[in-house]
Amino acid sequence: MIVKPNTQSPPDPPGPVAWLIKNLFSNWFNSLLTLISLSIIYFAAASVLSWVFTTADWRPVVGAPLLYLIGQYPRDQMWRPGLSLWLIMFLIGMSWGVWEKYVKAFAIFLAILLGIFAIVPLETATITLGVRAAFLINPVLIYLGYLIGKNKIVNGQHVITLWIFVSSLIVLVLLPGFEGIPFLPKVETTVWGGLLVTLLLAVGGIVLSFPIGVLLALGRRSSLPVVKIFSILFIEVIRGVPLITILFMFSIILALFLPAESRIDRVLRALIGMTVFSAAYMAENVRGGLQSIPPGQIEAARAIGLNNFQTMVLIVLPQALRAVIPSIVGQFISLFKDTTLVVIVGINDLLGIGKSILGSDPEFVRLQAEMYIFIALIFWVFSYFMSQASLKLEKTLGVGVR
Amino acid sequence: MSQDNESIIVARDVHKWYGKFHALKGINMDVKKREVVVIFGPSGSGKSTFIRTINRLEVHQRGQIVVDGIELSHDVRNIEQVRMETGMVFQQFNLFPHLTVMQNIVLAPVWVRKWPQEKAEEIANELLERVGIPEQAEKFPGQLSGGQQQRVAIARALAMQPKIMLFDEPTSALDPEMIKEVLDVMVDLAKSGMTMLVVTHEMGFARAVADRMFFFDQGQIVESGAPEEIFQDPKEERTKLFLSQILSQ
Ligand SMILES: Nc1ncnc2c1ncn2[C@@H]1O[C@H](COP(=O)(O)OP(=O)(O)OP(=O)(O)O)[C@@H](O)[C@H]1O
Ligand SMILES: [Mg+2]
User: Fold this and answer.
1) Pick from A244, A311, A341, B99: CA 20 to 30 A from residue B137's CA?
2) pLDDT higher than 90, residue A276
3) In angstroms, rounded to a whole number, what is the distance separating the alpha carbons of residues A121 and B138?
4) ipTM summary value
């Protein structure tokens, strides 16, 4: 076969019509498939849209916005979750300024969402003008934080420190309060609920299980038999048991053995259960990463004089964790979704609130579809931003790797 | 090249077993300050094993190794001390892929010698100049050629200002056109008076700068001597045979 040298100039980029013909109608069979697919999509979309806008009854979803956000948190103490939200939005703004590409989409989305929430006239009994004004401050704070981060007034280290400090303050002081302090009275976690509890369990579980999981993975490779056996036992026992069982164990059985006055808080028990469960899986993920590090890396680290601890923290872990970012993020996403299981130990997370609203009015009983679609949407949004951020993180970190 | 007669590495009757396999069978070697020693021999003869016992990447089971007056034992402080005094360059470079060239080089000076970052970077820049790649400091190892990576590895080892440099087949993983750039750096280093222990089959390098050569076979030193003796008048049949094989290539 004789190949003629190609003397033509490259073809012009195809216009939309050319694209259509090339990709969708290149021959009669493709054209047929295209038409069939289009009609399926059309009918599906049409029926979904008509259900959403005409048949569906969104009253249970739009009726009690505060319940979804904070559960039964006392309405006269609303300023506390409100202030917490402000602080967090300010930090998200700063994070956006500092780590532009990971947080940007999420921050902008939140700003728009909170702005809409403040303006849309959903309900006026609990969402008063004052509450709306307070909500409207959130987008402003996000943007303010963004400017501060963008203009390098704070750096990444500052922002991380602030996150740790502020979130501890919120979770340990501002929201629970104390007995006997007049302006910060105690609010039992039994009345916390909604998105507040869901996020608390998810973020708390993620933040706590990460270091524990790393330690367990290292423990499993330890040369000290006690540490090694403990780690293996912990990991294998927890991984062999369903999360529901662990939640029950920590919520009910554990409470039976502990003396009544030392009972730990119910939400805290659920959080410990989630953390323990997630840590075991985390450990296995990290172990995979540790195994992928070539022995030459450790030898080189030793040869330049690093001790075992430095070798681990400076050389092995950064590479091991980087190698397993996709599975770690995947695990965090499933942990986030698994928080819904705490309903069965009587905690009113987002799903729990949804169920209780359905049960609160006989008219609502048949509106399950609306409710669960709404809740699924909320979970999807958070999961989506997590996986997007992880994709970008992988790409960036990939630059430095072989 | 050696002026003073003090031994900086002393190995006495060093034995090493991997399980039942007897990899080193009584190695004796004295290396003087500023001496350049080349170790060569067939694959599996224990060259890597021996050079790695000197900074205790491998543990010997019998005999004695003293490096700069410090005896290698299970005492961790001694091991750390010896590792600070010896730099090592590996066949596979073993650069840290998640760190830039600059970060690779300043890591140990900052964390082990506790130098301030600025001082470490200053020295790193001098070293990069010396190995001929001053412009690559901000790149990652994966973005460099093999020869450049190996030169970074040499700079990384030198950054700790070691008294001894160990090289384990530093050019064996390189494409032929890159071997020279690495050997040039090593020749310069030898001429600057560094004590060097080099496992290599680059006989041109040995001829140019080695003070003594050791021929290893089956875990033993078969023959040793100055390069002229080894090349012109080898005593042992095995040495002759091996030399004729690698020189004919
Ligand atoms: N970790 C190990 N476990 C068991 N045997 C080993 C180990 N490392 C090396 N050996 C064996 O010890 C012997 C000496 O190995 P060594 O790597 O020192 O050889 P070498 O002279 O460096 O060879 P090469 O030129 O191939 O690098 C070989 O037979 C090898 O199979
Ligand atoms: Mg070898």
Assistant:
1) A311
2) yes
3) 55
4) 0.93
Beta strand B7-18 pairing with B62-67: antiparallel
Provide the chain A residues 203-232 that lie in CB contact (below 8 A) with chain B: none
Tell whether A10 lies on the interface with B, counting CB pairs under 8 A: no
Strand order in B220-225's β-sheet?
Answer: B86-89, B164-168, B195-199, B36-40, B212-217, B220-225
Q: What is the mean pLDDT of residues B205-211?
A: 95
Ligand nearest to the CA of B168: 2
Position B249 pLDDT exceeds 90: no
B96 C-beta closer than 6 A to ligand 1: no
| Residue A60 scores a pLDDT above 90 | no
Pairing of strands B62-67, B36-40: unpaired
Type of residue at B102: M
Q: Nearest residue of A to residue B98 by CA position?
A: A400
Cross-strand bridge partners of residue B38: B198, B213
The pairs formed by A184-192 with CB atoms below 8 angstroms and a separation of 24 or more are A184/A80, A185/A77, A187/A73, A187/A74, A187/A77, A187/A80, A189/A265, A189/A266, A189/A267, A189/A268, A190/A266, A191/A71, A191/A72, A191/A73, A191/A74, A192/A70, A192/A71, A192/A72, A192/A73, A192/A267, A192/A348
Q: How far apart are CA A248 and CA B65, in angstroms?
A: 60
Q: Please report residues of B whose CB lies closer than 8 A to that of A295.
A: none
Distance CA A296, CA B155 (A): 17
Q: Is the shortest distance between the CB of B45 and ligand 1 below 6 Å?
A: yes
The predicted-structure confidence for A308-349, as pLDDT tens digits, reads as follows: 999 999 999 999 998 888 888 889 999 999 999 998 888 889
Pairwise CA distance, residues B164 & B155, whole Å: 14
- Where does residue A13 rank: exposed (0-12), middle (13-18), buried (19+ CB within 10 A)? exposed
Q: Which residue of B has its CA nearest to A295?
A: B94
In angstroms, the CA B21 to CA B46 distance is: 11
Tokens of A295: 């022995």
